[in-house]
Amino acid sequence: EAGVVQSPRYKIIEKKQPVAFWCNPISGHNTLYWYRQNLGQGPELLIRYENEEAVDDSQLPKDRFSAERLKGVDSTLKIQPAELGDSAVYLCASSFASFPRSSYEQYFGPGTRLTVT
Amino acid sequence: GEDVEQSLFLSVREGDSSVINCTYTDSSSTYLYWYKQEPGAGLQLLTYIFSNMDMKQDQRLTVLLNKKDKHLSLRIADTQTGDSAIYFCAETGAGKSTFGDGTTLTVKP
């Protein structure tokens, strides 16, 4: 079974340019997460989707970041315009959430390493 | 908000046991996890424990949970050089996960 797929793996852009990341979750997983991981730190949640609905986007900097998950499958995360401080690894993860209780085991993709110059 | 704390580094000899510790603040956490991250890769789920359990064993891995003290530990028996990586503790409450900053485990031959 294929794992979580992310592309591109690496991206170098100049500040003020736009950038987009793509994620394809594990088949059948209804929950999708975007995280940002700064060097030497753990992942920080940017947005969580349950199917097509963004159920937690409280940490997403909405002035420059946007995300979508059309049809409840793959997702894109966009930054426009990028700033120097956006340099980080952007991780996508997916899980299968069943209600009323779920273990929320997350399966991560390899990430996209973004460098803003 | 919720917080998860881990020590930054641990160094052990090959064949010894490793114990990685974690504390968390969210008393409503329902599940607690251990993930492993190798260079250039995403996080790999190692194991998890439900908050009403005290211990879970899975081959070389033993997870201990002290809910009263909000303390979680991961013991790796017979540590191998391939276990060298960063280990993250995480907790989930109501579907939202908070991760620690990771413990870098170095295994010396």
Low-confidence stretches of chain A: none
The global form of chain B is globular
Mean pLDDT of chain A: 93
Number of helix segments of chain B? 0
Instruction: Tell me the helix content of chain A.
Output: under 10%
Instruction: Tell me the number of strands of chain A.
Output: 11
Molecular shape of chain A = globular
* Mean pLDDT level of chain B: 93
Structural class of chain B: mainly beta
Question: SSE order of chain A, as H and E?
Answer: EEEEEEEEEEE
Strand content of chain B: over 45%
Sheet with the most strands, sense and barrel status of chain A: 7 strands, mixed
Write down the secondary-structure element order of chain B: EEEEEEEEEEE
Count of helical stretches of chain A? 0
Low-pLDDT runs of chain B: none
Distance linking N and C termini of chain A: 37 Å
Quick take:
The complex is a heterodimer of chains A (117) and B (109). Chain A has 117 residues and is an all-beta fold.
Characteristics:
heterodimer; A: 117 residues; mainly beta; 7-stranded mixed β-sheet; globular; B: mainly beta; 6-stranded mixed β-sheet
Protein described:
The complex is a heterodimer of chains A (117) and B (109). Chain A is 0% helix and 47% strand. With 117 residues, chain A is an all-beta fold. In chain A, strands 2, 4, 5, 6, 9, 10 and 11 form a 7-stranded mixed sheet that branches. A 4-stranded antiparallel sheet of chain A has the order 1-3-8-7, with no helix packed on it. Chain A starts with a strand and ends with a strand. The model of chain A has no long low-confidence stretch (mean pLDDT 93). Chain B starts with a strand and ends with a strand. Chain B is 0% helix and 60% strand. Chain B contains no helices and 11 strands. In chain B, 34% of the residues are buried. Chain B has strands at 4-6, 9-13, 18-24, 31-37, 43-50, 55-58, 61-66, 71-76, 85-93, 96-99, 103-108. In chain B, the strands form 2 sheets. In chain B, strands 2, 4, 5, 9, 10 and 11 form a 6-stranded mixed sheet that branches. The chains are: A mainly beta (117), B mainly beta (109). Chain A binds chain B through residues 4, 31, 33, 40-45, 48, 50, 55-56, 91, 93, 97, 101-111, and chain B through 4, 30-31, 33, 35, 40-45, 48, 50, 88, 90, 92, 95-97, 99-102.
